[in-house]
């Protein structure tokens, strides 16, 4: 099975900071990667699909990049609503593994 | 409004069974592959199972194989997860989720609110 490794597990940042989260796959997954945001007690929300496509309604400060085994989620200017936990998820041959998550905290 | 609503969670003893339901509305349910995802308390998301649009194809995570069965009733626009031989480590919030694009995978764009399953004696 494909393993997804996210880093860092926790990130402390200030409003307006540029934030980057990395996700590495244990084998190539082309661009079959999605990013989600989850707030406490709530269901996850899709931000990015196919590694770099922005879901409708998601602010343009969110962007995704990468292909193969290395992917990044970037928040260009951190806003109050962005403090949350972020997960990557891969799809390959009917396997749909999530990364371990990155909690973005207020510095 | 496009919506998924889970039900059926609760407290069950180890070795017991539970059937979760996920009622879909606001979209053509029969066109979409559907999934179950769980989240143990304080931990990350874990994919559990998927089913294709007509119910003829299913895939399970290793932790669910042989114990869980995903199914759907397109006439009732409802997704199910039958869970047997439950273990303490199955304790989690269980979410149903819709794939973003019918017939493929572009992530999960619609999620239910989740239903809590607690396995404890």
Describe the structure.
The complex is a heterodimer of chains A (107) and B (121). Chain A has 107 residues and is an all-beta fold. Chain A has no helices and 10 strands. In chain A, the strands form 2 sheets. A 6-stranded mixed beta sheet of chain A has the order 2-10-9-4-5-6, with no helix packed on it. Chain A has a 4-stranded antiparallel beta sheet with strand order 1-3-8-7, with no helix packed on it. Chain B is mainly β. In chain B, 0% of the residues lie in helices and 50% in strands. Chain B has no helices and 11 strands. Chain B has strands spanning 3-7, 10-12, 18-25, 34-39, 46-51, 58-60, 68-73, 78-83, 92-99, 108-111, 115-119. In chain B, the strands form 2 sheets. In chain B, strands 2, 4, 5, 6, 9, 10 and 11 form a 7-stranded mixed beta sheet that branches. Chain B has a 4-stranded antiparallel beta sheet with strand order 1-3-8-7, with no helix packed on it. In chain B, a hairpin with a 4-residue loop joins strand 7 and strand 8 (78-83). The radius of gyration of chain B is 13 Å and the shape is globular.
Proportion in β-strands of chain B: over 45%
Q: Strand-and-helix sequence of chain A, N→C?
A: EEEEEEEEEE
User: Average pLDDT value of chain A?
Assistant: 96
Give the fraction of residues assigned to helices of chain A.
under 10%
- Strand arrangement, major sheet of chain A: 2-10-9-4-5-6
| Overall geometric form of chain B | globular
The number of helical runs of chain B is 0
Series of H and E elements of chain B: EEEEEEEEEEE
Which strand-content bin applies to the residues of chain A? over 45%
Number of strands of chain A: 10
Give Rg of chain B in angstroms.
Answer: 13 Å
